[in-house]
């Protein structure tokens, strides 16, 4: 019940009308970002972050998280109307969403997608409301060894759960940590990997990297595909909305399943993209009309959206309670907290009650507001997509350049952004995942300092990571995750005969 | 796609690119390890030295990239798919080269004027628009940025001779 009273206090923070204005501005910007190619949740928030330095942290986080919700909603618009996923997590939405639009049921598909997003987010935020205080209280007892163990688990799960080749995941992760280490070592004050360059003294800012990797890289990829937007038009009116809503209750079991999958993938750093695919796959398997999936099934639109949005929202749970973001966008928000002078982690729930509960309350309101905004403004955003790419692309690149510059007021950063753009393009093409790179870049310093503190405590004895049951089980779990590709290959070899048998059935 | 066209579109295989990127990773890992070793990657009397953590990060990068390299060299089914079609590569360069020029230009004439030139060039070259449509967009976008950043949020962006002449 403590959570409920804190939540009510959180809604009190939102009573400031300016915060509501920021919320709507954030959602509109977010939908715009979600619709435009090359701009997504992570780099959109990164570009707008410097503009919020002057605001109070509460207003700033409300606006930035609203951008995130807006982007999550917006991805569905392009998927359904144009068959172009605006965000990676809306790829699964195109499978049934676009066929529906081709049949002239675009309005229904959009309503279903938005409502699905809302259901997923709502489920996740209820989870956050009740789980976050418990986890935070528990995590207050964590020492440096425990924190490092949790970091280790985060990074190892990328290896164990990612669909990319494990060696490539490890390589980009190490790259992220190495880039994070460039500059002045915070403990000893020594210069690391600057090679005598003054520009490198500042190190690499992950915001610049995010804008390059996701923004510029995405534009290059889009350009390669040769864009010709050929969209379906959509009209949403009350009748379509109500008609669609009437069909939704019968999918409650599927929604619950997708929401659980989404929350799990969001808390572990699986992220929204695999969550949407898994939800779609599960729905296809369990639905009575599974064979009809891919031809324009309403259920096939709802489920991936529930999963994606639940994951996107749940990604904030580990960020707030442990200081570990569950997705690249959550990582950028975490970077924002650090810039505003707030240390994410369990202490946040003790020292910054207003901030935390204001944010959680804003997730509730933001998603209701988001649902209303997208249902009413779809034609407007669909019209933006009809602006040809040769006009949109240079404008997005200019916006990215501005975003990269404003992080540190450094012209050099614009060039760095461009280099990261090319890296992002090549990595995407060669199946190197970008999320571990960004997370390593954000968490590098914190992971390193907790490791070094733990090592200081134990006088360099790695045994500290098995010194009590809690830290021992987290580290062991992390190692299982790390070697999971080898373990699962081993299991498969052992059961080689059985697997073949199963395949024959 | 007929074979002749396929040959025409051929650039490099994905396998070649994989090997090149793995080698670059290895070079970088070597650099990280060497520099960390230089500043001390061992255990001092007061705890780990500054290069301790980065050294092992470099080592992980090295091992992972060597694995990728060996996988690509030793596999019996190398991925000979085309990394990027020639025509696609041209489209990518059509964006990349002007963007590089744009970034260089920012350093000399400021962000606003460079943006106007960049947008105008892009619309004219790739979009084949008429000046009547190009000019409002190319001038309007930097103007909106100017009002938003310099006037509203008081965040200064790089400026050049034109802005100085106008008194900013």
Automatic annotation (TrEMBL), chain A:
The keyword rRNA-binding is assigned to this record: no
Protein name (Swiss-Prot/TrEMBL): Tricarboxylate transporter
Stretches assigned to the DUF112 domain: 20-439
Entry keyword annotation includes Cell membrane: no
TM ranges: 25-49, 61-82, 109-130, 142-161, 167-188, 200-221, 259-283, 322-343, 355-376, 383-404, 463-487
Pfam families: TctA (PF01970)
Top-rank lineage group of the source organism: Bacteria
Keywords: Membrane, Transmembrane, Transmembrane helix
TrEMBL record, chain B:
InterPro entries assigned to the protein according to its UniProt record, in alphabetical order: DUF1468
Pfam families: TctB
Transmembrane portions of the chain: 20-40, 52-74, 95-126, 132-155
Alphabetical keyword list: Membrane, Transmembrane, Transmembrane helix
DUF1468 domain boundaries: 20-158
Keyword DNA repair attributed: no
Entry annotated with the keyword Membrane: yes
Protein name: DUF1468 domain-containing protein
Provenance organism: Azorhizobium oxalatiphilum
Taxonomic classification: Bacteria, Pseudomonadati, Pseudomonadota, Alphaproteobacteria, Hyphomicrobiales
